Amino acid sequence: MNPTPVPFGDQQPPPTPALSGGGGGSTFDPMEARVTRLEEDMREIKTDLKALRDEMRSGFRELRDELRSLAAELSALKAEVAEIKGRVAYLPTVWQINLQMIGLIFTVMGGAFLIVKYGMH
Q: How far apart are CA 81 and CA 112, in angstroms?
């Protein structure tokens, strides 16, 4: 095994052989097969990328449709919440209910007093 000489000082590295001009026979003949293989791989990559692009576009369409549907549902939900808020606003408070109960108790007691005092003759 001969080591590659290392340039020292003004020395230049040995020139590398050029690509063959199509006649074949040079040390770079396997490069043609490698380039062909790379071209085939690139075709495959392009095909895969196109399939991925189409799949992504389809997925984005589905997402857009789903978002539109969710927006419509959200709008309906907002209307229902507004209606519930309106109904809750008109419900009596605890104090109002307590005062009504106290008024009812006094009314019943007053009626009982009148019946006892004037109705038992």
A: 46
The string of DSSP codes covering 75-89 is HHHHHHHHHHHHHHH
Residue 24 backbone class (left: φ over 0; alpha: ψ -120 to 50; beta: rest): left
pLDDT digit string (tens) for the chain, length 121 residues: 555 665 566 666 666 655 555 555 555 568 888 899 999 999 999 999 999 999 999 999 999 999 999 999 999 999 999 999 999 999 999 999 999 999 999 999 999 999 988 876 6
Rounded to two decimals, the pTM is: 0.41
Contact (CB, 8 A) for 8 and 14 = no
What are the residue ranges of helices labelled H in 90-120? Answer: 94-118
- How large is the greatest C-alpha to C-alpha distance in the chain, in angstroms? 143
